[in-house]
Amino acid sequence: AYYILGIIGFGAGRLRPVAASLLFPLDFTAAGGLANTSGYVRILYALYLEGAVTIAAVAVAILRVSASESLTNIGLKYGLLTDA
Questions:
Q1: Cβ distance 21 to 4 under 8 Å?
Q2: pLDDT at residue 68, as a whole number
Q3: Which residue in 15, 20, 22, 39 is deepest, having the highest Cβ count within 10 Å?
Q4: Which of 34 and 24 is assigned the larger pLDDT?
Q5: pTM strictly above 0.90
Q6: Cβ contacts of residue 55 below 8 Å, gap of 6+?
Q7: What SS3 state is found at 83?
Q8: Distance CA 74, CA 72 (A)
Q9: What is the rounded CA–CA span in Å between residue 51 and residue 19?
Q10: Exposed e or buried b for every residue in 59-81, given b needs 16+ CB within 10 A?
Q11: Which residues cross the membrane (predicted)?
């Protein structure tokens, strides 16, 4: 759902073709044309990324609190969670 919000805002909202809309994160790389992207769009994309990181952090926190012991052990083993 969050990616669809990005497609709408950074793809269709800027009147990009469908293929370019689906690959909108490439517009924000050095090779993908960052120099041709407006400053305010870059700021909005940075806020979009912060939202994605916040959603991921909340999901990990919820997983940490509600996960079973075996799932927590898997998270610790692969470095997804820390033993604090």
A1: no
A2: 78
A3: 20
A4: 24
A5: no
A6: 2
A7: coil
A8: 5
A9: 24
A10: eeeeeeeeeeeeebeebeeeeeb
A11: 43-63
Question: For the chain, how big is the Rg over CA atoms in Å?
Answer: 17
Question: What are the domain boundaries of the chain?
Answer: 2-77
- Write out the two tokens for 67: 């996960």
Calculate mean pLDDT across residues 63-83.
79
User: Token pair of 16, please?
Assistant: 């990009």
Do residues 21 and 7 touch, judged by C-beta distance below 8 A? yes
Give the single-character DSSP code of 80: S
In SS3 terms, 48-68 reads as HHHHHHHHHHHHHHHHHHHCC
- Angstrom distance (rounded) from CA 32 to CA 67: 39
Instruction: Output the pLDDT for position 60.
Output: 82
What is the C-alpha separation between 60 and 64, in angstroms, rounded? 6
Count of C-beta atoms within a 10 Å radius of residue 28: 17
